Amino acid sequence: MNPRARTLLREGGNVATKSVVGGNVATKSVAKKVKELTEQDLLKAPERDYMNEAQLAFFKQRLLELRAQLLNNADDTGQHLRENEITTDPSDRATLEEEYTLELRTRDRERKLLKKVEKSLRMIEDNSYGYCEETGEPIGIPRLLARPTATLSLEAQERRERVQKLYGD
To answer: Are residues 136 and 100 in the same domain?
Structure first.
């Protein structure tokens, strides 16, 4: 098979071969090159391994799962809001309106989170993920496990929050 007819694909740490035969594309999985990590593996890893290929694959997978969950929630909300429940009782109607308002507020927060997830995925692609935007220092595995979309180290985030508290937005 010529080199142009066969390429390697990498998605979320998985490696597959893609063969083009007679215009048809066939994909088959190949053994994973990157070992799948657990949170405990990440926490035990030495500092010299910070943001290696396996760790980036772990966080990419976590971010992809978060993105899928957020998109699924948005779809569910859209379907829920399209279901017009007709009530004649004013108190039932008020309760229903309040539920819609809360649901829409939650989706708005998730929409903002989705933008952060997309930004984090782009940062993984350009190998800047896991490093503070202000100082360039490592953010740290524990912080990224708690908040995979973090772009500031804990110290830089605390500094920013103190400034915002003093001077407002």
So the answer is: yes
